[in-house]
């Protein structure tokens, strides 16, 4: 798992380069003509769609839905001949995702497969393929493929927006920052010690940070077996706050400067119930603001909030990995899970 997290920047760069081998003219036509975009996938692939929804909406797409593939089989969303489906799957063999893509295509939608594996099942049913080039991912927990999926999805959103290089330049800059997150992991070590001592870890954030929080939670529970949930920060007070006590850790992701104050109040809600708090941020000056409240503030390199998921996701992957190791669990072989789920 660690080796693959260390390859995040490479996955980002290679996926970026490969994007231009896709038929961009056809993709652009589909993006511009779409009445609705539906992103479909399972697990981490689904979570990449939660991030991408914000990107597409920021580029003027009015209707962007993210669907769990296993639900589509029985409860397919409405589609028309102008609906664009982005079916995301690292392996390209996940039965639920392949079936969902096939059903939606049968209903008239145009299906683009976003996958790390050439000639996989999903590429055979899709109208078009966008390649993730993460390299072979062996570990059950998806890490570098998530970064590759985010890269493809970001570039598609920029293609829709009309950005000349589809985001190539800014993505290559962020790849350097991803490398520095992986290299400076002292605080991540401290955060994983806090996780290892907790009975429950809540990952919280707003907007795009919430989308990464969901992935952070999945990663942690998958390899450490600690109970975890990913939550919109503002929802905490509507129920989950009842679970907060001295054994609970809240990991709050903050990358929107305009939401900093709101997130500070989430920190206070947890601290006043004796819960412990860690903050992951790309904003400067947060450490000073939260002194005496958060146990630890991990300040990542400064980044545009839209590009921050590449950094915050890398951090939460490392936290999950280190927590598992601290608890003596083998992150490379999580119990009960298979790399590719080829049955319903
Ligand atoms: O190969 P896929 O991307 O279609 O796999 C989907 C999920 O099974 C997968 O992302 C799973 O959630 C991972 N174990 C998450 O780390």
Describe the structure.
With 344 residues, the protein is an alpha/beta fold. 47% of the residues lie in helices and 17% in strands. The strands form two sheets. It has a five-stranded parallel β-sheet with strand order 2-1-3-4-5, with helices on both faces. Helix 4 runs antiparallel to helix 11. The mean pLDDT is 95. The site of 5-amino-5-deoxy-1-O-phosphono-D-mannitol (M6R) has 17 residues, from helix 4 and helix 11.
What's the SSE blueprint?
Blueprint: H1 2-6, H2 8-19, H3 24-33, E1 36-41, H4 43-58, E2 64-68, H5 69-72, E3 83-89, H6 95-106, E4 110-115, H7 121-125, E5 128-131, H8 144-161, H9 168-183, H10 186-196, E6 200-205, H11 208-224, E7 227-232, E8 248-254, H12 260-271, E9 276-281, H13 286-289, E10 296-299, H14 309-326
Parallel strand pairs: 1-2, 1-3, 3-4, 4-5, 6-7, 6-8, 8-9, 9-10
The chain binds 5-amino-5-deoxy-1-O-phosphono-D-mannitol.
5-amino-5-deoxy-1-O-phosphono-D-mannitol binds next to helix 4 and helix 11.
Short overview:
The radius of gyration is 19 Å and the shape is globular.
The strand line-up of the biggest sheet is: 2-1-3-4-5
Alpha carbon gap, first and last residue: 26 Å
What hetero molecules are bound to the protein chains?
5-amino-5-deoxy-1-O-phosphono-D-mannitol
Oligomer: single chain
- Given as residue ranges, the uncertain stretches (5+ residues, pLDDT < 50) are none
N-to-C SSE string, H for helix and E for strand? HHHEHEHEHEHEHHHEHEEHEHEH
Global outline: globular
């Amino acid at each position: 798992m660690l080796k693959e997290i260390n390859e995040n920047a490479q996955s980002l760069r290679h996926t970026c380069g490969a994007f231009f081998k896709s038929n961009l003219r056809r993709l652009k036509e589909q993006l511009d003509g779409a009445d609705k975009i539906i992103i479909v996938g399972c697990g981490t692939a689904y979570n990449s769609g939660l991030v991408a929804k914000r990107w597409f909406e920021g580029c003027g797409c009015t209707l962007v839905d993210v669907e769990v593939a296993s639900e589509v089989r029985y409860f397919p969303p409405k589609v028309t001949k102008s609906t664009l489906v982005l079916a995301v799957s690292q392996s390209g063999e996940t039965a639920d995702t392949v079936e969902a893509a096939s059903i939606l295509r049968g209903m008239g939608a145009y299906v683009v497969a976003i996958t790390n594996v050439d000639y996989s099942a999903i590429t055979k049913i899709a109208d078009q393929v966008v390649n993730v080039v993460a390299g072979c991912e062996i570990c059950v927990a998806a890490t570098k493929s998530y970064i590759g999926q985010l890269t493809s999805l970001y570039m598609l959103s920029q293609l829709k927006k009309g950005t000349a290089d589809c985001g190539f330049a800014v993505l290559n800059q962020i790849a350097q920052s991803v490398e520095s997150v992986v290299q400076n992991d002292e605080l991540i070590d401290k955060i994983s010690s806090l996780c290892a001592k907790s009975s429950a870890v809540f990952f919280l954030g707003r907007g795009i940070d919430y989308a990464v929080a969901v992935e952070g939670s999945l990663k942690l529970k998958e390899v450490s077996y600690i109970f975890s949930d990913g939550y919109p920060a503002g929802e905490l007070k509507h129920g989950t706050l009842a679970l907060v006590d001295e054994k609970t850790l809240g990991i709050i992701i903050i990358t929107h400067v305009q939401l900093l104050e709101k997130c500070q109040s989430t920190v206070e809600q947890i601290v006043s119930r004796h819960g412990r708090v860690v903050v992951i941020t790309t904003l400067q000056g947060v450490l000073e603001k939260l002194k005496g409240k958060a146990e630890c503030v991990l300040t990542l390199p400064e980044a545009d909030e839209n590009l921050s998921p590449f950094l915050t996701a890398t951090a939460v992957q490392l936290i999950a990995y280190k927590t598992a190791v601290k608890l003596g669990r083998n992150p490379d072989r999580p119990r009960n899970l298979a790399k590719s789920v080829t049955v319903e």
